Amino acid sequence: MGGGKGSTRPGDKRWRRLWPAALMLWLAAAGSGCAPPPQVHLRAEDHYRLAQAYLGRASYRLAEQEIRQALELLPQEPRYFELLALIYQAQGRLALAEAAYRAALQQPKVPPSVLVNYSTVLLLQGRPDEAIALAQRALKDPGYAKPAVAHTNIGLAYLQKDAPYQALEHLRVALEYQPELPEAHHNLGLVYKRLERHEEAIAAFRQALRLRPAYVEAYVGLAGSLLALGQAEAARQAFERVLALAPESEMAMRVRKQLQSLTP
User: What range does the domain containing 192 cover?
Assistant: First the structure.
């Protein structure tokens, strides 16, 4: 069976506590010695691909094991630290994710995706100014292939800073680059909702849901704007979709309370 979210093994908890400090010591010890032979690169890449596959199946323990093995072989490869960060990020372990991103940033030739993915963690931590700075750094890289994602994060950061019109500007740019990016439509809905432009918010949330039918956060936003327009039954249906898609989530707990308030 795959190692899922709740899987543990002896020593895991102690390792997780020590990991950020151990990571820095590891990098210091790695030095700048001779380039490893091609066979080492091949083995490391095999572990990296396995870690990606396990992450895609939410087998976080196995993904972490594989990427650690890749890092033991190539301890200065920023892509490996980035994948480790994404594994932690998927589990909500944001401090460990940040430590891995910081380690990636210490390496030469850091991919711009590291900057943008790190900015996502900063947004989850409520640090919008730092998030904007990192995403803007990524946009300055001529090789960055996903400017829509960077602009989407910048837009959300400005919304966190209570600057909805600046947020709107970046989200519109994001959609010019990638018209079918569900996160951009969702965040656009959040901006319109903040501005109390609820009909536009509903349209944006529905577009996000057309692109990603299981987008729980978009259902929550949609329900809020429907309620603001007095459409209680439609809001109820949106809330019920949240419960169907993520019944054990914290969001579902909040939704149940809101549904109780809608009961006649």
Answer: 182-264
3-state secondary structure 126-138: CCHHHHHHHHHHH
Domain end, chosen from 57, 76, 107, is at 107
Tokens of 61: 């323990």
Left, alpha or beta for 213 (phi > 0: left; psi -120 to 50: alpha)?
alpha
Domain at 200, CATH number: 1.25.40.10
Domain boundary among 179, 198, 220: 179
In this structure, the answer to whether residues 95 and 58 fall within a common structural domain is yes
For each of the chain's 264 residues, which pLDDT tens digit applies? 444 444 444 445 554 555 555 555 555 444 445 677 899 999 999 999 999 999 999 999 999 999 999 999 999 999 999 999 999 999 999 999 999 999 999 998 899 999 999 999 999 999 999 999 999 999 999 989 999 999 999 999 999 999 999 999 999 999 999 999 999 999 999 999 999 999 999 999 999 999 999 999 999 999 999 999 999 999 999 999 999 999 888 888 888 888 888 776
Place of tokens 């501005």: 195
Calculate the alpha carbon distances from 164 to 118, 125, 154, 184, 262 in Å: 22, 19, 11, 14, 29
Contacts of 76 (CB under 8 A, 6+ apart): 27, 30, 107, 108
- Report the domain count for the chain: 3
Q: How many helices (H) and strands (E) does the chain have?
A: 14, 0
Task: Answer for the pair 191, 167: CB distance below 8 angstroms, yes or no.
Answer: yes
**139 contacts 155 by C-beta, under 8 angstroms:** no
Report how far apart the first and last C-alpha atoms of the chain are (Å, whole number). 46
Q: What Rg do the C-alpha atoms of the chain give, in angstroms?
A: 21
Residues 208 and 255 in one domain: yes
